[in-house]
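#help-structures

NK: newbie question. if I give both the sequence and a SMILES, will the prediction place the ligand too? trying with magnesium ion
OV: yes, paste both and it writes out the complex. here, I ran yours:
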Amino acid sequence: MMELALPDTPHPLPWQEAPAAVLAGLRGVLTDIDDTLTREGRIEPQALEAIGRLHAAGWPVIAVTGRPAGWSEPGLRSWPVAAIVAENGGVLLRRQGRSTVTYQYTVDDRQRAERFARLQACATQVLQQVPHARLALDSPGRHTDIAIDHSEHHHLDRAGQEAVLAVMRSHGLTATVSSIHINGWLGEHDKWSGAQWAVQAVLNRPLEPGRWIYVGDSTNDEVMFRRLPASVGVANIAASLPRLLHRPAWITQAERGGGFAEVAERLLRARTAG
Ligand SMILES: [Mg+2]
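OV: that's the protein plus ligand as structure tokens.
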């Protein structure tokens, strides 16, 4: 698989070389959270400041994460983002008034309960069959998926990760690997469908691919790199590039929150200039 870098998915170019004309057409920012805005689970100050500056300049920022709904809610309360898509498109969190956060799902309560039971059965089998596999510590906040930790608080090697993916897929789950977890869920949703859902809900218009930029760092961002012509990997994406068939168009110099701040800086200048 490592050799499958195709001619139409070249290595990302430096972000500073992104054409100003492309940036001038952009209107909104979609971003991953873990290791794109955060380091070791905490948002980096430069990323938070950059989101604040984008927000102040009228750029909607929507976060799209594999993290659970329960984990995402404090972020929505304290960061100036317009919405958070959690659980890889399974849950949309929005603010209502000053203190209420609403949760929306892709399916009704009955279907969600059925899926939840099937997911727990799959998780039980993963833990029985894959040596050293452990549930992610944020699992209690998960409403529509399950997650196995591979790099957050517990190490699971590549062979173990593949074994987890195989069990999840044998249960009919869609499964992806983020920088920290292996996530599995039932249903057709993914980060891309979640992003479309959020843009429609927040801005009351469809997501136009030429108008939004996506920032990410890992293999679970691949669907966004594939769908959006304007996509950026923060520098720490370098470790994941050999496993990406669809790579971001550009890569930043700095890692994590510093990389996100680089993206914001150029977007803000492009808007001012335009
Ligand atoms: Mg990430």
